Amino acid sequence: MSRSLASFPEELLARILALALPPLSSLFPPRHHIAPLLVSRQFLRIASPLFYHTIHLHSPHQAARALDTLTRHPPLANAVRRLVFAGIWRSSTAVLALCDRVHDVDICLDAGPGHQTSGPGDPIDPDAEAFCYALEQCHTIAHLTIRKDPALYLTHPRPIYVLLRLAQAVRHWPDLETVHFALRISASPTTLPLARALSVAPRLRSIRAQLPAVWNNFLLIISTNPRLEKVMLYSEPILGPMHTRLNTTMRSAVIKGGYICDDTEHAVLGTGLYMMEAKKHARFSELLKGGTSIIRTRAHTTISTMSTPSAGGTPLGAIRAKEVAVELMANMNRDSFGLAISQPFAMTSVRHAHAQEV
Question: Count of CB atoms within 10 A of residue 323's CB?
Fold first, then answer.
């Protein structure tokens, strides 16, 4: 006797629909993502909390519409676990305050109403102030991501204010476990309070950040947290963003430290200035080995160090392999150019000495 899917127990249907409605990882979901919600009223009731697990707020208008939906349907607000903010607006603050079970927050810093550099006479930003207050009242946050608009400088008033207030908010988050700095962040009077707050976070396990351009002690301060297990650094691709599959033929080129990640395309050269300076600090160096994909290179070759492939090794991405080859070839060309210059001078000296003997 055949049975329809609708006759299954709702607990089983919820697990099946969870596979069909994974948490969104992009700003605009594909059209087929809402298909399970259109099957029947039963599917709509079961799948709606799964659909609202992650909410991307990419404009004030869209945030206002999301606020209206969540206000009219409180059970959906209770189902939200992750919020991604493309900016700080009054409506996004209301959404954050309404979703009191959020444990993952992704914040994109924007310039806000003022684009001038910060000064003592700058007016208070009411939207940023309300947003930061809502963050402090959200005691369930376990995962935090901080990024910024590409045209933004951290010297603008709004990012300065938000970063300083985040340092205070972290002390209200006893369950904070991971922090991702999706921007190049350095040590400054604006960022150091946040570093010191993270250094005493009671449950902080991992830090993920873009490789800084120059050495600074921002991450070094955070590494003093005794609960911290790993620090993962990744570099932005030189050849630009490209979406290709991993080159599975180049195995063990990336030296892993027991942390499986998805940033093999952005592995870090172990001979970089920041990494060389980080090796001088024992605790920080161990945390980097535990979380960062490191490429080790041999002198005068274009091949990354190939040790015996490990079972848990992660292959070096094709894009990153090309970048490493370009860097090493540039070094080899400089060496070859120096050798080519020195050889004619050497031959001239020999001929001159021979002429004197004759």
Answer: 20
H or E element that contains 231: strand 230-234
Q: Where are the beta strands (DSSP E) in 77-124?
A: 82-85, 104-109
Pick left, alpha or beta for residue 178 (phi over 0 → left; psi -120 to 50 → alpha; otherwise beta): beta
Q: Is the pTM of this model over 0.85?
A: no
Q: Is 298 left (phi over 0), alpha (psi -120 to 50) or beta?
A: beta
Give the containing element (helix H, strand E) for 254: strand 254-255
3-state helix, strand, coil in the chain (%, to 5): 45, 10, 45
What are 40-56's pLDDT values in tens digits? 777 777 777 878 888 99
Structure-block tokens of residue 277: 């300076």
Reply yes or no on whether the pLDDT at 299 is more than 90. no
Question: What's the pLDDT band for 235 if we cut at 50, 70, 90?
Answer: confident
Q: In 10 A of CB 247, how many CB atoms? A: 18
Element (H, E) at 47: helix 41-51
- Give the residue among 60, 65, 140 at the shortest CA–CA distance from 97: 140
Tokens linked to 224: 């003093």
> What angle separates helix 41-51 from helix 10-20, to the nearest 10 degrees?
60
pLDDT given for residue 29 in this prediction: 57
CA angle 74, 78, 84 (to 5 degrees): 110
The two structure tokens encoding residue 131:
């947003």
For residues 67 and 91, is the Cβ–Cβ distance under 8 A? yes
Model confidence at 353, pLDDT cuts 50, 70, 90, reads very low
Q: How many Å apart are CA 273 and CA 36, to the nearest integer?
A: 51
d(CA 280, CA 286): 11
Yes or no: say if 252 and 283 are a contact pair by the CB < 8 Å rule.
Answer: no
Rounded distance, CA 210 to CA 199, Å?
18
Q: How many CB atoms lie within 10 A of CB 136?
A: 15
